[in-house]
Amino acid sequence: MLIELHAVPGDRNPVELAKAALAAGLEAVVVTDTERTDRLDDYLDALEDAGVAAFAGIELRLERGRLVLIPRELDDAFYDVRWSKGSP
Questions:
Q1: CB-facing half-sphere around the CA of 77: CA atoms within 13 A
Q2: CA R_g for the chain
Q3: pLDDT, tens digit, for every residue of 2-41?
Q4: What angle do CA 9, 56, 74 make, to 5 degrees?
Q5: 64 SS3 class
Q6: Which of 10, 38, 60, 85 has the fewest Cβ atoms nearer than 10 Å?
Q7: CA 13, CA 88: separation in Å to the nearest integer?
Q8: How far apart are CA 87 and CA 61, in angstroms?
Q9: What is the distance, to the nearest Å, from the Cα of residue 34 to the centroid of all Cα atoms in its chain?
Q10: Is 30 within 8 Å of 53 (Cβ atoms)?
């Protein structure tokens, strides 16, 4: 199984990301966004609609580098966290 463990959508919309995953031959993708979770469900849905196994995570900016967190469950505890000072 070919899995991308850290796909940040950037400016791509959900369908564009799903098409890119298919074009790359990926069977699964962990979609992360930088310090926000509000867009993840749309990307997960588009990937699943395209037949790509989809998982969610979050990328956190640190003083030196980045940290990717992939939760065991996508629940309120994950979605409702204020991940940075700048997030809603």
A1: 4
A2: 13
A3: 788 889 998 999 999 999 999 999 999 999 999 989 999 9
A4: 145
A5: coil
A6: 85
A7: 21
A8: 12
A9: 9
A10: no
